[in-house]
Amino acid sequence: MTASSRMTRTAAVLTGLTLATGALAGCGTDPSAGGEGGGDGDKPVIGVSVADQKSLFYVAEVAGIEDEAEAQGYEVRITSANNDSSAQVKQVNDLITQQVGALIFTSQDSTAAAAGTRAANQADIPVIAVDQRPESGEGELATYIATDSVKAAYDLCTWMFEQIGGEGQIAILRGVLGSTAELQRSEGCQNALDENPGIEVVAEDVANWDETEAFRATQNILTANPELDAVFGESDAMAMGAAKAARDADREIFSVGIDGFPTMFDAVESGLTQATMAQQPYMMGQLAVRNAIDLMNGEGEDIPAEQYQDTVLIHEENIGEHSVEDFYGPDARSLG
Fold first, then answer.
1. Can you list the alpha helix ranges (DSSP code H) found in 81-206?
2. Can you give the residue ranges of the Periplasmic binding protein domain (predicted)?
């Protein structure tokens, strides 16, 4: 698949429309084509619901889903909720009505996660959750594929504290409150803080994974805290926003994030930011498709209930040893 075709398909998803025709998979999904869910022959179609196609994590996840489905000879129907929980619940219900054989589900928040998972459960459609999950008791998952965000945040914050000498003032920029990643990354950094009494958290703000919100929040934090040493952004976008705010204010701070976006690789290399924990969304998308196929074929007994993926700490000293394509797929540089 070429970079140009990837960019064309990504642009189509950015409209947030429900792609029930299967155009992203490169083939039709007319229910009259035969097979459950309108798949090719007797093969059921894999339904996919993601929170958005603005976050590079989700774009790379979808790329992995598309490529693996194509390689395995399966069709996918992909919907993007454009960060609208209500819209996502409706999209999941639409996929269920279309009788997809399995649902790969990256929810916007816990509300969408619970409602969508329960609806799929009632229709006996297995749910493979990626990155986000419903709260306990809010629906049954076939498996949950995600970054070990607690460990990632703990390792990153511990490293950052070492770099600033084990003492100083930091700020924390949090993602969407109540989301799985926000809760786990907050927990991981707090664990590191508990082990480093010389580090003082002087400010916290919610920036919802967004660079612009993080930029504005950091402007206020810098004004109120002239001795600020570092910012932990719970995502790369927020770390980038913090670093740009500091640069514009002619302040030197340590700024780190979690994601491993191509733009963050560039920022670390240039010295704008200091580190990122690189996730593996492309591989997660591929794994989700393989799990979906096994489940649809009645061969999913050995799939673990939880499949946590490691991250890789990327910083100035080792960035030359890693490629962003290893984490975000072969077309990583054309995804954003």
1. 85-97, 110-122, 149-163, 180-194
2. 46-299
Task: Tell me 19's DSSP state.
Answer: B
Host H or E run for residue 275: strand 275-278
Q: How many residues does the chain have?
A: 336
- The pLDDT assigned to 178 comes to 83
pLDDT of residue 6: 43
CA distance 122 to 107: 18
3-state secondary structure of 147: strand
CB atoms within 10 A of CB 93: 16
**Tokens for 28?**
């039709």
Counting Cα atoms < 13 Å in the Cβ hemisphere of 300 gives 22
- Sorted by sequence, the CB contacts under 8 Å of residue 246 that are 6+ apart come out as 218, 222, 231, 252, 253, 255
* Spans of the chain below 50 pLDDT: 1-38
Strand partners, 275: 256, 315
**Structural domains in the chain, sorted by start:** 46-145+280-309 (3.40.50.2300), 149-278 (3.40.50.2300)
Q: Are the C-beta atoms of 212 and 150 separated by less than 8 Å? A: no
C-alpha 150/C-alpha 183 separation (Å) is: 9
Coil/strand/helix, residue 199: strand
Q: What is the pLDDT of residue 40?
A: 54
Please tell me the predicted confidence (pLDDT) of residue 336.
60
**Span 158-189, pLDDT tens digits:** 999 999 999 999 999 999 888 888 999 999 99
